[in-house]
Amino acid sequence: MSDHNFDVVVIGSGPGGYVAAIRASQLGLKTALVEKGNLGGTCLNVGCIPSKALLHSTEMLHFAEKKAKNHGIKLEGVSFDLSTMMGRKTTVVETLKQGVQMLVTKKGGTIFQGLGVIQNPDTVIVKQDDGDLTLSTKNIIIATGSTPIELPFLPYDGEKVVSSDQAIAFDSVPEELAVIGASAIGLELGSVWARLGSKVTVIEYLPKIAPTFDDDICKLSERVFKRQGLTFHTATRVTGAETAGEKVVLTAEKNGKEITIEADKVLVAVGRKANSEGTGLDSVGIELDDRGRIPIDAHFKTSVPGIYAIGDVVAGPMLAHKAEEEGVAVAEVIAGKAGHVNYDVIPGVIYTDPEIASVGISEQQAVEQGIAVKTGSFNLSANGRAIASDITEGMVKVIADAKTDRLLGVQILAHGASELIAAAVTHMEYGGSAEDLARTIHAHPTVSESMKEAALGVDGRGIHSI
Ligand code: NAI
Questions:
Q1: pTM above 0.90, yes or no
Q2: By the 8 A CB rule, do 202 and 190 touch?
Q3: Cα of 22 to ligand 1 centre, how many Å?
Q4: Which option is the CATH number for 2-148+273-341: 3.30.70.260, 3.40.50.2300, 3.40.50.300, 3.50.50.60?
Q5: Closest ligand 1 atom number to CA of residue 211
Q6: For residue 350, which atom of ligand 1 is closest to its CA?
Q7: pLDDT tens for residues 143-186?
Q8: How far apart are the CA of 20 and the centre of ligand 1, in A?
């Protein structure tokens, strides 16, 4: 017997799930949102939001300690209180969590706390401490997200060997922090703890940091982050680990030689894996792909009619905004509308300082795909606003189709690149060309003029470049 009847039951309340629930409610569907942990999922509780709170606090500390004097600002005895910093982060998370609850319920959705398990295509069981609830439903959306990947020889212990879940909440600053993986999580949290005083060593298997970006952006990023005190070992494979007293000693292979890296804590940031277990998928006959993800078609439908999946648990970049877009689209599909996601134009950002942002394909990917491209770039050291604001580290690169001039990609290393990339996303969403970007008037003086200059550079007619 069912306790409740719904049109849609969403399992998982991260940016994919809660947005799907809101959009489904807006479209008049009776919607339930089931969450076993905290509302908002990884992004809000242990990912995007708390890391950005810490990045911002530590950027301000870095400014006070290292940069203020360049502006004639005299600050003496600058120090920080880690527990206050962490407390502020928690307040930010709590505020937004209440926001999610308010939004979902005000739009008409019902939230159930407990583990959602699919019993059959029209029944979800919510397992709670004091018993089970049965929800009958016409449609199910699985939005159960992802969890950090563990290295087989370096299991997480939550103390010395940690994932990002713990590295956003250390209660003291580790003297030495080793980070395995030089992508978004490794670089962001490596930056946070380096600014707080840790000696941070980042080990990356591939030959460059932020490896999905083009070489010129990666090289410049590495130079900038080294100046900020981070140490990098690229083209280095961690092969083993041992605990020696209070320390962990990592063994790694670099250029055919064995090196060792000693640390108080090791942050493993080598990717995330889909959360596809424990949701009852086997009971309805949904088979996973070779990476444990739920296969779906272009309309987010799994192999079982009435069951859909979105976000990190399906293929594609594990990004909150990709999941959100899929959440909107899947609700629209269920409501009989034409929900759609443009996967060619999803921005990606690493929130270091400067930030590294991109949209579309890199020059390297264009070469791999056999697409002839023209590129233009502009260095921030020639941008008036960047000089005035003391944020000259970085560059913008524009990648355009050599035949049609259509914008294929933009990569930015700049303070505020996460905001700058939005203009490139819009140009690309509307099918814009490098010429369109080059002829768009940008306010002066702004760092965004570097985008226009890079676009002009595609045809070698940059005004402020040599
Ligand atoms: P990632 O998959 O983006 O990068 C992992 C890095 O670790 C790669 O550069 C890889 O070459 C390296 N690696 C893998 N195994 C290694 C080994 N044994 N030794 C040394 N290096 C190794 O993973 P990351 O940074 O953990 O992020 C996980 C997911 O979360 C990604 O999909 C990412 O996009 C997403 N995320 C996004 C953020 C953002 O948008 N700012 C922030 C945090 C996470």
A1: yes
A2: yes
A3: 30
A4: 3.50.50.60
A5: 9
A6: 41
A7: 999 999 999 999 999 999 999 999 999 999 999 999 999 999 99
A8: 26
